[in-house]
Design a protein that fits this description.
By secondary structure, the chain is an alpha+beta fold. About 40% of the residues lie in helices and about 20% in strands. It folds into two domains: about 5-210, Cytochrome Bc1 Complex, Chain A, domain 1; about 225-410, Metalloenzyme, LuxS/M16 peptidase-like (Cytochrome Bc1 Complex, Chain A, domain 1). Helix 9 packs across helix 12. The termini are far apart.
Length: about 400
Amino acid sequence: MKVNHWTLSNGATCVVANIEKSTLTCIDFWCKGGSLYEMKNEEGMAHFLEHMIFKGSKNLKEGEFDLRIESLGGSSNAATGLDDVHFHVLVPPEKMEEGLKLILELLLFPKIEQEAFEMEKEVVLEEIAQNIEQPDEIIYLKLLKECLKPHRYSKPILGDKNTVKSINTKQMKLFHQNHYVGKNCTLCIVGEIPKEIHSIINNSKLKELNTISEERNIIPKPTFNKGYIKETIPRLEGGRILKAWKLPPAKEQILILGAEIAATILCEGKSSLIVKNLREEKRIIESIDIDLQILEEGGLILLDVSCPQENLKTAESEVNSILKELNMDLVTNKDLDRAKKLVINNIYFSLELSSQIASTLGNQALWGRHQSILKSIDDISYWTTSRLNELIFPLFNPENAFTLIAEPEE
């Protein structure tokens, strides 16, 4: 698969990859407009704007975009993250040019009209209300708040009801104007694409994105706060142990790959160290998962253990013991080889569809990581048990964690 990159005069990045006989072509638009860029009292703006973009543009009535994409045999979706936001459409290859016109019209020229704005604000507020009632979300947001405050990463992407209620159309239009600009945006198209794709994109409305000369305000690096708290959570079933550690920023791809290997060694599959010991043999936990929250300014390693409430103390002690022993030759070459195979398989599985490839390429290009889509598979040979011992396992030291112990409310 050949990948081509180029940049328009307004700074917008373009990425295309041709996949012959692909059933669907994905058009994926990325913007450095996630919740990280919200100012004080704007929390929730980026996500709210994602909603409003689908409410119509200068030349598209509300609901018209969805109807026209569906009439092409396609579908659309969007997601707002802490760092960025992206919108994508999947269409049959022969409808790619029309799909591109529609999504660029929607994204570049949103109306943000008062009546639709007020109606959609109620939808977002209801989403927030439902979210904060979920035990898993309560625990997760509490952990983020404690270990990353006061950085913007510590606050929910949805915002809270007070900040969302206070947002007005003028603020939202200004947020769009300031962030949806050439140098902040990437267009990625993956699938069966026409030979004249460069001309199609270069002459599309993408070239109408504004350029800005001033640099954005420098966002301070997040500081990680170590700590330990216990919480009682309404409607929680059983006990939970959550631990968070500092993860290097997204640009440190080799280190993040090492952390993925370590997480796999620890808790992916019945033969992984913690699952085998604490679930299969001692049967004191019900499940364990380690997730890497990869972020541009510096992310988190998140460990989540579920166990019967009466096992919380024992389970926490056992987990800490395993993590402390990681540097004591606890991990064998057999463990490492198994983990590498699983990580490689996961990489391949995550790149099976045109939408998955577009998402990966688009995100890489947005943040200036122009590399082979399979580079991490080549890099995996770098990791040996000695390098994991030196560079990665210290990241999992329980003494450097923020720990949250959650119990059901009586």
